[in-house]
Amino acid sequence: MEKNCTLTTACFDLTKYHSGCRSLSETIANITPLLKLECYLIIYTDYNLIDLIKEARKEFNDITKYIVLNFEELECYKYIDVVKSNRDKYWPTRDSRTCAESHLLCCNKFNFVLQSMELNPFNTNMFGWIDSNLRENLTKICENFKYEYLAEILSINSNKFHIQILNVTDKNYKTNKRDYYQEYRWVICGCLFITEKNIGKKILNRLNEIFIDTTLMGYGHSEEMFFLEVLDEFYDDIEKSYGDYGQIINNFINPTCNLHYIYYLIIKKYIQYQYYKECYDCCKKVLYSIDNNIIECNKKLHISILIAYYNAAYFIEKTECLNIISKLYSICIDLEIKEMEETKKIEETKEIEEIKEDIDAHFLQLAYKLKKYTY
User: Fold this and answer.
1) For the chain, which domains are there?
2) Whether pTM exceeds 0.85
């Protein structure tokens, strides 16, 4: 096992606060796939769950640190009355499954990771967050999960903050919080992120500031929407992957699946909002996977991605435009040749069918004559 990253997670029993929260049995069932993974792990939990979690994690207790505390001891809990008051006044994203406590638990993940960085019980260079509610075979964050997929992520050694982009949102919402929280805006996949310590501290502390400011302004829904601001503020410090929640692990280093999602929900929207730098970086990463046979891509989608890349490069890196045009020309020529070959095959097939029909006709005539002249 590569000993380079300490993951952090949290699991608390919130049923006493809200009947819609997961039961103890469901909570343990959902966290068990994570507990079965060989990785350095710090788990923040409460007294109701600790024994159940330790039992499920017993194979790896030597590479696990447990921090047990009451939910009311969390740093974010001090804002519980403010959040409840906010929701009485303005909560258009109301969801029966959530409550003020579950919202604050999500928002406290920044503090959890910051605390893990200070503790660093396994002396690692990288730190990360992973949700506890991953479901069987980690289907929440991975297609066809294999341990080596996660091991590759845990071996990352960089000075960046790594996170997956989920969607593209209008940046004007950064200064219009009321409209921003009118509905849930899909920004990033908060289920998993990995970071180097120094840049991680800066970004996580900034996210805490945004949480506090947003809460005091009267808004908030979980933690993912806070990232809209830091994506710009720390642009060069964030290494982005792209895709839906279900492919976080698959695409975390390079895109390996669901290119249609990346093109239609991310690349096209970057062009729509004229976020050319973001589009340029996204296309470049996708094209790297295509060119190196990391992912299969049909020619038409490949052309669409290259056209978007050209449009972005025109504003960001004009020197690349000629190479992109050359690549597009090459693919179009290949498609034309393939089309001609297909046309030729169809014509040859028709010719063969005509010959067969002639043979069949001659055979019928011969059979008739044989029948006529034989006894």
Assistant:
1) 5-156+169-228 (3.90.550), 254-375 (no CATH)
2) yes
